[in-house]
Amino acid sequence: MNILSNIAIYAGAFVVVLSVVVFVHEFGHFQVARWRKVAIDTFSIGFGKTLLGWRDKQGVQWKIGALPLGGYVKFTDDADAMSTGPVEQIEDPAAKAEARRKGLFHAQPLDTRAMVVAAGPVTNFIFSIFAFALVFFIMGNDVTDVSRIPARIATVGENTAAARAGLRPGDVVRSVDGVAIANFDELRAIVAGAPERTLALQVERGGQTLTLSATPSRAAQQHQNIQTGQGQLGVSGPMALESERVVVKPNPLEAIGMGAQRTWEMVAQTFGYIGGVFAGRESGNQIAGPLGIINVSGQVATSALDTPDATLPQRLQMLGLSLLTLAAILSVAVGIVNLLPIPILDGGHLLFYLIEGLRGGRPLPPAAQEWAYRAGFAVMASLFLFATWNDITRLLPIGAR
């Protein structure tokens, strides 16, 4: 029963978070298309067999697919759900004018098509701003100065140097080899410079002082704040006690500003990471696929539901805010990925529109676009396989070192 419960929590959290993000993205396309009087055929969350569907008064079919790994808005003249081209190429000026009057997407002016395509990623960013803002407004902004928090261990990884040394969550490391430690950053710095060298840790636990010996392992690859070759214990921190935390409650306008700042920071960090991967400065092991999202969603939901000493309403509130935060983070990622200039993505469509504008309104030949879409599909399939491999190596022992 416990296994079934965990499966339900992980799957449910994944479906909820991803569905929200996909709906936000597709609703951006849909709303701007409707504003520009573009004829819409289908709004779908998920792919495959239709589980639930209906058609509204405007003739749009709304449906939920059995495979919750994305979604699409299909315009009336689309040849496929990816909007890679029209059902029929229209060259005659009079026929194109009539198609434009009917709202056929591929006959619309360049600015209309660009606005409709760009609306998806832009709406993802707007959603993230307001989602983060709502979380800040309800929970407040944690402005705790972590440099004033002692080196208190939050988590200890299994089969790590810390676990072998006997470190536990809640332990406070007071000194290393006789050198006093004021905070977690100082602990991290000393450990990073001592790979495979035994250290004497003076640890405070439950009012007692213990001396433990720990031998940091050598990091095989870069992750988080640890560079390749540096020492690592396999712990996270610092863990701040409730009495040590400083939380400021913002007003609505301040919360929106904080949400915008958080969204911008994530955009800048993500683009910096992507640039680092292509430049060889960063490892690509942080790229996650569906399995990774399922795992994170489940962990977030489980952590919220297992909050100790919390009532059921408090746990449900924590669950909602935790999943909303995760949705905001994922929404930023979806917005960024869709702006990449890869054919079949929104960024690829916008690149084609830019080329069309530079060519005086003449789009690339259909054959060139078809080859570009094939190449884009190959790139995305390769990225999906790479991300899935990353997920597997993180989840299964074969990825451990």
What would you say this structure looks like, in words?
- With 401 residues, the protein is of the alpha+beta class.
- The chain has 2 domains: 108-141 and 250-401, no CATH class; 146-244, PDZ domain (Pdz3 Domain), CATH 2.30.42.10.
- The chain is 50% helix and 16% strand.
- The strands form 5 sheets. Strands 4, 6, 7, 8 and 9 form a 5-stranded antiparallel sheet that branches. Strands 1-2 form a two-stranded antiparallel ribbon. A two-stranded antiparallel ribbon has the order 3-13.
- A hairpin with a 2-residue loop joins strand 6 (172-176) and strand 7 (179-180).
- Helix 1 (2-35) packs across helix 8 (312-339) and helix 7 packs antiparallel against helix 8 (312-339).
Write the layout of secondary structure elements.
Elements: H1 2-35, E1 40-55, E2 61-75, H2 93-101, H3 110-139, E3 141-142, E4 151-152, E5 155-156, H4 161-165, E6 172-176, E7 179-180, H5 184-192, E8 199-205, E9 208-214, E10 217-218, E11 231-232, E12 235-236, E13 247-248, H6 252-279, H7 290-305, H8 312-339, H9 346-358, H10 366-395
Antiparallel strand pairs: 1-2, 3-13, 4-6, 5-12, 6-7, 6-8, 8-9, 10-11
Helix pairs in contact: 1-3, 1-7, 1-8, 3-6, 3-8, 3-9, 6-8, 7-8, 7-10
Which features characterize this protein?
401 residues, alpha+beta, Pdz3 Domain, two-stranded antiparallel ribbon, 10 helices, 16% strand
